[in-house]
């Protein structure tokens, strides 16, 4: 016979069972394992002498076992270590010319030898805390790993109290490192620093009592990176209280004289002319700041105003009833095979040209994979482009399951309206008013909103996009008078990027056709010293906007909106007349001027959306009850935020790289 007919369990399993059997003495374990190994060994012999080849293979096997058992870094049960290598039994240990071939219908090399440090809880605590694993769960998981590695938990520093103590120490030490790091980069950096902030009411447990408490997330944008400063509690979300919390953090990190910009959501508490947080901060630091309103929030306000012309906007519940209809019918709809409803627009009209532009834009988003985050495609942005393309053209993509809807966010609502329109013929019980609303929302969403939202993060495009949006709404009055006027009025309320201090961001956009004229006009204007700026928002003059012609086939020029106050960002960069000589030259040669390149890099490095603050707010909701003292809570926020920033990839190499940094 050239093979043994084996009918028992896998040998590796049997080895482990013998080692774990507490009823057997050590001598019995040795005999049983030796017997099993002998049964698995070759059946070769010789007449009239010793089988030297067989003896040599046995010696080689013992040598490899001896090397493994003598390794001082392996923290396993010393009595069992001689047999651990036997559990990874391979045919190579039987001799070079063996012909034994066991087939157990399993992978023959299903085990790897690893080295486990004695303080394994401390070594893995960084990842455990960052992933939200409790000390009990951490201890249980590591104990399981040790036992499955044929080790004894008693030989390791592994207990719930150890896990808790190690986690506390790591959080505290890492938070201290983060604070010192931020202080150092603030001292060394000369970039335009931006404070991002956002408030939230949070349910928290303090002294065994449940409270609803206001908190404000405060972050710093510096050198194209965003750092969390803290998420302190405040008495209320008033402008005064928010200002005080922000100022305290600015003073702690040495930022009071260095911050040049504020990024915020456009709530009345933030933007109030007299009592708003922004105005209070400007008065506190006694200098004009660049006011960067979150473009995602502004665009959400535009579409919310458009939505208000339809009855479903009056709902006060957490979800729109129309969206519930789609969810209830989803499983009964074969979305991949049914004929989809498309928007048909007659050619030769202005709105048809808008459709062609939207189709081209979405095709570029999908084919070029433009919008990425941490090297990964942003799936929700990709889905938005796909649905828009399906509504406006004959293209077809895979439908995604309808997700949760947040009442305050319109991104998800937009996805629902596009799906409702595409599948309208397959959904029962839709009234004529429902169909009118779905059609109107789908048309507005696909023609305008998709491009507005997806381009919102591009700071240099902001002024051009806003003047274009207002022009589109003026022209769209022919098709939807109420909706277009509602959005146009919203744009007039939120003219942040048409204000004189920010309209010059368009100079950093190479696609802006009038940027040469804008630069020449600015250079010809008397420079207004930054210290002479009034301590208030520099608002666009609406009489200038009203004088522009929005009835043409192209949006009007931004040049009339440039004033002497447009010098503010250049004053912040310390660019005087000598450093702005490039403004007198053609735009084609600006890229060869170092001062223009510095200006362009500064503009493009600014974060004009406040998503980082909203992520920090989500962080506090998840972590608030992990600690009960305010100091430990702040440390936990800083630690977890830092951990999540370093854990972006989902490949094996990404996990390994992140673990090596711990």
Overview of the structural elements:
This protein has 662 residues and is an alpha/beta fold. 49% of the residues lie in helices and 8% in strands. It has helices at residues 11-20, 26-40, 52-69, 81-87, 120-130, 135-148, 160-188, 239-252, 268-271, 277-285, 295-307, 321-330, 350-368, 379-392, 410-422, 432-454, 462-476, 481-493, 515-524, 542-546, 568-572, 594-605, 611-623, 630-645, 652-661, and strands spanning 193-206, 209-222, 225-230, 233-234, 259-264, 290-293, 372-373, 376-377. The strands form 2 sheets. Strands 1, 2, 3, 4, 5 and 6 form a 6-stranded mixed beta sheet that branches. A hairpin with a 2-residue loop joins strand 2 (209-222) and strand 3. Helix 5 (120-130) crosses helix 6 (135-148), helix 13 (350-368) runs antiparallel to helix 14 (379-392) and helix 23 crosses helix 24 (630-645). The longest helix is centred in the N-terminal third of the chain and has 29 residues, at 160-188. The radius of gyration is 33 Å and the shape is globular. The two termini are 55 Å apart. Residues 67-104 have low confidence and may be disordered.
């Amino acid at each position: 016979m050239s093979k043994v007919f084996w009918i028992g369990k896998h040998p590796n399993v049997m080895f482990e069972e013998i080692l774990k059997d507490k009823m057997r003495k050590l001598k019995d374990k040795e005999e049983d394992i030796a017997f099993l190994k002998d049964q698995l060994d070759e059946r070769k012999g010789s007449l009239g002498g010793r089988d030297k080849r067989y003896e040599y293979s046995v010696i080689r096997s013992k040598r490899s076992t001896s090397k493994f058992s003598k390794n001082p870094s392996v923290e396993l049960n010393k009595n069992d270590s001689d047999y651990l290598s036997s559990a990874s039994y391979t045919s190579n240990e039987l001799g070079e010319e063996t012909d034994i071939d066991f087939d157990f219908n399993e992978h023959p090399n299903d085990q790897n030898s690893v080295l486990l440090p004695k303080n394994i809880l401390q070594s893995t605590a960084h990842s455990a805390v960052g992933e939200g694993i409790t000390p009990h769960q951490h201890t249980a998981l590591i104990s399981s790993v040790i036992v499955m590695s044929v080790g004894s938990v008693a030989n390791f520093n592994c207990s719930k109290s150890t896990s808790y103590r190690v986690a506390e120490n790591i959080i505290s030490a890492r938070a201290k490192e983060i604070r010192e790091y931020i202080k150092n980069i603030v001292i060394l950096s000369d970039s335009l620093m931006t404070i991002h902030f956002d408030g939230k009411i949070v349910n928290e447990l303090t002294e065994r009592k449940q409270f609803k408490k206001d908190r404000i997330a405060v972050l710093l944008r510096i050198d194209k990176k965003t750092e969390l400063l803290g998420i302190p509690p405040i008495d209320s979300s008033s402008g005064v209280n928010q200002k005080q919390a922000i100022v305290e953090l600015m003073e702690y990190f040495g930022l009071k004289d260095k911050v040049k910009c504020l990024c915020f959501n456009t709530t009345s508490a933030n933007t109030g002319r007299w009592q708003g947080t922004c105005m209070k901060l400007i008065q506190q630091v006694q200098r004009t700041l660049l006011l960067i309103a979150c473009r995602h929030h502004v665009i959400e306000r535009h579409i919310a105003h458009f939505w208000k012309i339809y009855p479903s906007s009056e709902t006060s519940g957490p979800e729109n009833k129309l969206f519930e209809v789609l969810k209830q019918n989803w499983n009964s709809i074969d979305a991949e095979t049914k004929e989809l409803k498309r928007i048909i627009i007659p050619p030769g009209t202005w709105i048809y040209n808008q459709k062609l532009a939207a189709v081209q834009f979405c095709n570029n988003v999908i084919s070029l994979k433009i919008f990425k985050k941490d090297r990964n495609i942003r799936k929700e942005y990709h889905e938005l482009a796909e649905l828009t393309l399906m509504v406006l053209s004959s293209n077809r993509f895979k439908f995604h399951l309808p997700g949760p809807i947040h009442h305050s966010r319109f991104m998800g609502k937009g996805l629902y309206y596009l799906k409702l329109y595409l599948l309208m013929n397959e959904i029962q019980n839709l009234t004529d008013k429902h169909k009118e609303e779905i059609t109107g929302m789908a048309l507005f969403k696909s023609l305008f909103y998709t491009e507005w939202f997806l381009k919102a993060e591009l700071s240099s495009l902001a002024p051009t996009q806003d003047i274009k949006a207002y022009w589109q709404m003026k022209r769209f009055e022919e098709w939807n008078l109420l909706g277009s006027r509602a959005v146009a009025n919203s744009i007039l309320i939120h003219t942040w990027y048409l204000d004189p201090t920010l309209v010059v961001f368009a100079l950093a956009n190479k696609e802006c056709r009038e940027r040469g004229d804008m630069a020449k006009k600015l250079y010809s204007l008397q420079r207004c010293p930054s210290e002479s700026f009034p301590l208030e928002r520099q608002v666009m003059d609406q009489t200038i906007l009203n004088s522009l012609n929005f009835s043409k086939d192209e949006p009007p020029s931004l040049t009339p909106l440039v004033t002497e106050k447009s010098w503010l960002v250049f004053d912040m960069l310390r660019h005087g007349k000598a450093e702005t000589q490039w403004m007198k030259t053609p735009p084609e040669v600006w890229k060869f001027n170092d001062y223009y390149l510095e200006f362009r890099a500064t503009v493009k490095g600014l974060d004009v959306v406040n998503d980082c603050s909203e992520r920090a707010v989500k962080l506090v909701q998840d972590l608030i009850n992990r600690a009960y003292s305010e100091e430990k809570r702040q440390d936990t926020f800083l630690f977890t935020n830092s951990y999540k920033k370093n854990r972006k990839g989902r490949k094996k190499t990404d996990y390994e790289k992140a673990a090596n940094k711990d």
